[in-house]
Predict the structure.
Amino acid sequence: MSEGIKKYGGILLKGSFAVSLANSTTKFVSFLLIPIFTYYLSPEDYGTVAMVTIVVTFLNLFYNPGMVSATMRLYHDTDNEEERKELIGSAHRFFLFFPIIFIITGLIFGEFIFEKAFNDFKFYPFGLIALILAFFGQPKRIWVTLMTLQYKVHITAIYSAISVIVGILTTAFLVIVLEMGAMGKVLGMFPSVIIFFFLSFTTIRKYAGNLWSFASIKKQLKFGFPLIIAIWSYEFLHLADRYILERMTNLKDVGIYSFGYHLAELPMFLVLGVKQLWNPIFYENMNKGDFKTISKLINYFVAFLTLINIGVLLFSKEAIVLFINPRYFDAIPVIGVIIVGVYFNGLLTISNSILAYKKKFGTTSKIALIATVICIVLNILLIPTTGIMGSAIATMISYFIYFVLGLWHQRETIAQLQAKALTIVPITCVVLVMLINLSFNHTFKNEFNWTELILKIIIFVAVCFTFYQFKLLGKEEVVYLKAIIKSKILKKKKTNL
């Protein structure tokens, strides 16, 4: 195994392991509380919380006009440390002051805008809270970018775990003890963003000092401008389903769908470390022309992403039936479909990194816009007849088209990095498992069944065997990963001694 694969495989594994461990810890705590929350929060409450999240996400579109991607790409265009500090410092100042314009606008016109934009969701109090929440969440963007560029994703994992646990405990107190309902769930989001607000301020101040300039901000905005359509389209693709559901149905349906979407996104949290570290590692190895290292890392990423998604797809129903309030059982059929959409969303990491490396931001924007338009049209067509399942299908198809268009556009480069079988086999497995799972849901209904569980275990083992046969995960990969994990554990023990 080459030194490049060992080096960057170790970095990816360390980052992925750290972030996944942090996320799995916080998610474990979060999932322990979900059954309790489903008794204290109605689907309508979950719908309200989902709408707050949508408003925050919508504001983030304006707050990040390509700044993060431009900063990361320009950082790798220079070896001058002073220039790098100016890039980071300038981006941080932008994220601190630019959102103030929208807060002022919201205070003046917010009530009028919300009456026109939403069906049941009002500006006071939840819209105003979303506006404040979005403001405090901005500086974290550039802090995470800096940690990623310095390959310190494990640090973001540690602080993320701390902040999320504080937020979860706060939410639990407000919802369970004080019985504040949706308001308690929304207010519970603040501890995390406030922690990162001050953490980012002190860290960036220490790294860049007062080094920033309007000229640098202008350069970064100009460089990232072609990405605006891509960023906006990508985020609209992520939130369009829930917004259209709110307009065409009610907050209860939004709440049930959002609950299902939340569970379906679990696989993405488990590979978050890989996604955060992918671009800087990809850029560095492409600059070196080390395609062998990139090819091997793509194999690892696709294999683990596929297995994690299939695992959640197969066994999410059992978790819901055993631990969740029955009024949320309507989410069970849609979760498997959403997971396939989430899976293609994860695969975008590969094609988007190639486009970004080649600075084809305009192409990324066009592809994202096409997928978003398709998502909106499908939601409008399918929701009246199939309800929340229509939104799930629209999400799956849209992300699939997004992935295929990027794959086709960069087919020559991808052919250098990955064999066709290593792309087709995992996708085929995910789609087949989804169809089988839908059949199980129809046959066994919303109840626990040992026969169904045993069949699902057999299917998962069969998928693992298929991966082994096609050498997506062979003996070499298993031995390598065991060696990396063992070396990290031994290193930690020596440090403790």
The chain has 23 helices and no strands. Residues 99 and 276 are 24 Å apart (CA to CA). The first helix runs from residue 3 to 40.
